[in-house]
Amino acid sequence: MNQLFVDRTEELAFLEEKYKENRAQLIVIYGRRRIGKTELLLKFVKNKNYIYFLCEKTSPQLNILKMARKMAEYLGKKSFARIQFADWEDLFREFLEWKTGDEKVVIILDEFPYLIEIDKGVVSVFQKIWDEYLSKRTDIVLILCGSSIGMMETDVLGYKSPLYGRRTGQWKVTELKLPYIKSFVPSYTFTELLYLYGALGGVPAYLCKLDPKLKVFENIEKLFLRKGAELYEEAENLLRQELREPRNYKLILEALAEGKRRISEIANTTGLDKAAVSRYMDTLELLDIVSYETPVLEKPKTKKRLYYIKDNYFNFWFRYIYPNKDLIEEKRGKIVLEEIIADYNNYMSIVFEKIAKDFVLKISLPIKIHKIGRHWWKTSKGESLEIDLLGFNKNKKEYIIVEVKWSRLKFSDVKRIYKALINKATKLNISGKLYYCIIAKEIENKDSISGAISNVLLFDLKDLEKVYFSQKQL
Ligand SMILES: Nc1ncnc2c1ncn2[C@@H]1O[C@H](COP(=O)(O)OP(=O)(O)O)[C@@H](O)[C@H]1O
Ligand SMILES: [Mg+2]
Question: Is residue 216 within 6 Å of ligand 1 at its C-beta?
């Protein structure tokens, strides 16, 4: 059993703060399956009084019966579990009557969406329980937790939800940040960590499965490239849990992983019509698997969108595993491994862009960045141009123009990229002070280059590593 518990200091501080308040709490915790919600909550309630209940997709009656047993255990009164409760309201009302003293208790309903699935009305019931009983107490911390991001955001937190406006706190649990990944594979170099991050993201359940003695690609082979391997099956299992008919979604995700980023391109590749792709895309967005960028200088409402798979695990899986399932089934995973190794730097260039954006926002720069993102546009002569990262300050008087390169740059490369950046900047319709920046995997003789061209900020993995491991708060 893995005893490692990594990070989550912010989340625990948030929960502790809520716990200390002298009023009833209704806290909503959600986030992708395997992200570490249950682990976090169990860590939080350690050394506290609590009732933990994992909801089941069985029947409301069975859930009530099992919850009653948990409550009885907490109360230390077996007879409580023998009562026939008519419904959830009855159960909670009775529980509060049986509970003596004002000792605070945390009640966790984990995977609350399972209850909603078997009975839509359960949200209204909990609204009533909250309004009439729990909210009037100071000894109850009710935590509703769930992995179905769509259901948590719509049915629990959404403005149409009966519980809307009731929650006293909410937290979306997200991936572990880059530096924390090292805790799972302490001997890995920074570059190896990035490679790994590209395949697994910061999902603790996957990181736990790593063998720290194996190299990156050995771990990838072990976890993905064999029939029955844990992360080989995982992506489809997750989709099946969230979607009734995952087939078309898989086609779309595969197209995205191949680098098709516009609705029209995806429609062409998949053979689905554009309206359908848009609809599927909305659902994938709601599930937090997919997101999109818009040109950073344009109004956010612009129709120009480039979609991408947010989750590194899904991105990796749909790029390398899904298209090669037949080979893996035939026990020819080695061939897939060779393909991955040959292509991996192309894949990493996508992963690295996201990391670079994060990095730029972490370091101190001569410009205070208000907004930053990709920018693409067509010049009046019809030329299509793109800037990896364009950032600007609040009054749009200062800009930073960044090129991101997952490769080793020589002095001549730096000069060429710098020139190209200047050229693009002159074709942008902006005025103000411009800063140029290149973020690369490696820059040969970086310090002497910086001396020679002083107008461009240069960073490579050594700088990233320093920043991430000095602050430890990516
Ligand atoms: N903070 C953490 N540090 C180390 N391992 C973790 C952490 N959070 C989760 N894990 C591992 O990931 C697994 C899945 O986490 P879990 O809490 O069950 O996810 P969720 O409830 O979000 O689906 C756990 O069994 C545990 O092994
Ligand atoms: Mg869980």
Answer: no
Is 1.10.10.10 the CATH classification of the domain at 9-172?
Answer: no
Among all bound ligands, the one having the nearest atom to the CA of 44 is 1
Would the pLDDT of 473 be above 70?
A: no
Q: Is the pLDDT of residue 121 over 80?
A: yes
- State which CATH number among 2.60.40.3140, 3.90.1150.10, 1.10.10.10, 3.40.1350.10 fits the domain covering 363-471: 3.40.1350.10
User: Roughly how many angstroms between the first and final C-alpha of the chain, as a whole number?
Assistant: 28
CATH topology of domain 178-348: Arc Repressor Mutant, subunit A (1.10.10)
Q: Are 9 and 16 in contact (CB under 8 A)?
A: no
Ligand 1 in contact with 69 (CB < 6 A)? no
Contact 175, 202 (CB under 8 A): yes
42 lines ligand 1 (CB under 6 A): no
pLDDT tens figures, 26-38: 999 999 999 999 9
Please state the rounded mean pLDDT for residues 13-40.
97
Beta strands, E only, 60-154: 105-110, 140-146
- CA–CA dist 222, 232 (Å, integer): 10
In ligand 1, the atom with minimum distance to the C-alpha of 37 is 22
pLDDT class for 244, splitting at 50, 70, 90? Answer: confident
CA of 376 to the centre of ligand 2 (A): 40
Q: Assess whether the C-beta atom of 2 lies below 6 angstroms from ligand 1.
A: yes
Amino acid (1-letter code) at residue 42? L
Predicted confidence band of residue 453 (pLDDT cuts 50, 70, 90): confident
Nearest ligand 1 atom to alpha carbon 42: 17
CA of 148 to the centre of ligand 2 (A): 11
